[in-house]
Amino acid sequence: MRIQLAQRSEADELLGRSPLALLVGMLLDQQIPMEWAFTGPYTISQRLGHDLTAAEIASYDPDAFAALLAEKPAVHRYPKSMAARVQQLAAYLVENYDGRPELIWAEAQDGHELLKRLMALPGYGKQKAQIFLALLGKQLGVQPSGWREAAGLYGEEGSHRSVADVVDADSLARVREAKQEAKRAAKAR
């Protein structure tokens, strides 16, 4: 299966081959449209001139990295704060996984441990970790025992709740519709 979260072939291709790009895209996925968030890693790599590495991002001058994300078009609506978060994530990956994010899931014994590892990432709360776990399971075949249970509602087969369920333009529309319905239901309470 091919990743189609950015809805731009070159950005999606990067997400499909770079675990770091996928983690950064998920980190950026807040308070901006999903496609913008998941295009962010591609934009950063284009500005750097090569694929992302955790070691380079972690050691980049913070002001220069914030300026890189703020260049027009900005990577996020809050480029300075998100630059700091991306650098914190990269530093954590260097310190705990030798800069190799794929070790987060390759070495996890089961879904519960994988969720715990994802929740330990800077910028990843429980919901973001569950969505990313569902994305790994549904789209990348990373399915340790108990992964669906650990992913909660996001792991349900056939659901359209999150980026984990976006595989084309139609599923993107269905996820957006489900999110709007959830917002309406929350307002009605």
Automatic annotation (TrEMBL):
Any one Gene Ontology molecular-function term assigned to this protein's record: catalytic activity
Transmembrane feature ranges: none
GO BP field: DNA repair
Highest taxon, organism lineage: Bacteria
Protein's recorded name: Fe-S cluster assembly protein HesB
